[in-house]
Amino acid sequence: MRHVRxxxxxxxxxxLVISCAGYVLLSELRATPATAGDPVEFIVAPGxxxxxxxxxxxxxxxxxQPALFRALVRWRGxxxxxxxxxxxxxxxxxxxxxxxxxxxxxxxNDVQVTIPEGLRLEEIAxxxxxxxxxxxxxxxxxxxxxxxxxxxxxxxxxxxxGSTLEGYLFPDTYRFAPSANAETIVRKLLDRFVEQYSxxxxxxxxxxxxxxxxxxMASIIQREAALLSEMPQISAVFWNxxxxxxxxxxxxxxxxxDATVQYALGFDASEGTWWQRELTxxxxxxxxxxxxxxxxxxxxxxxxxPGLAALTAAAQPDESVPYLFFVASCALDGSHKFAxxxxxxxxxxxxxxxxxxxxP
Length: 360
Hints:
This protein is mostly helical. It folds into 3 domains: 31-108, Endolytic murein transglycosylase (Dna Ligase, domain 1, 2-Layer Sandwich), CATH 3.30.1490.480; 111-197, Dna Ligase, domain 1; 211-323, no CATH class. It is 44% helix and 7% strand. Strand 5 (325-328) and strand 6 form a beta hairpin. Helix 2 (50-59) packs antiparallel against helix 3 and helix 9 (211-224) packs across helix 13 (308-315). The N and C termini lie far apart (117 Å).
């Protein structure tokens, strides 16, 4: 009798343990990692195993127990049912919810956005808003707060206090989840900048410059050059103008770039553009730290988003030339004529003006 009672007690304890374990398991399956949180883009690669998916879901904060997720997948025989693709998941979803989505194949319809070289922040904001992602105001509120990103991006270490991310949002073609917020978008553009700048950071040939100065110069080159092939020469012109030995020949350390004046002027409502083609004498003389016709040295920061060619040219100017001037060519193909002396410059300028006067 005693043995029977012990057996019954043992079975009761086992049943209690199983019941408790089942309750804990069921509670965990119904639990979510958080009661609130932003949607997370999650990509399942073709052929990716359930084990790998579980690990990454845990790392992304989308599930609390990767081991339990693996067990659930095996118990339900779903190893081969998870579909490859791009999904939007949330930390407020349960494991079962996530499994249902990953089996559905309902992938995110990405939004493709192309950002050309040479645009300022406001123009990039217009493109982002036109794609239906976030409003211009939302984007600019984040993109103008450079301090918000400094700790996460080493290449922003030379960003002056209070600066925006002008020049650091890399121009390229991107794909975003429709749910992407402004910070996600800005970080993706910053990540691409870091990726691209890393290809040139060890080959900078201009002594004593910071990343911020390189990006600033690159933005000016991007706006001034029409041909990629001429960017190293235009870079040489601007860096030469800043050298003390050339100060007596050209403006005493003035950069003299019209694109910086255009940036300082801002939006022209009459022309509906941020970049005026013709500048008046009064406009060329406006007082602004960005007007490099009146303020020596580089402007406080970039004036537009430079591409890799402009960044490379800024870091690696053509050191074989002592050019200080350039004038548009009569070929009208975007090319320029380069000059070392003011006398050469005036000859080329006269040629250009004569060409212009003969245009219909």
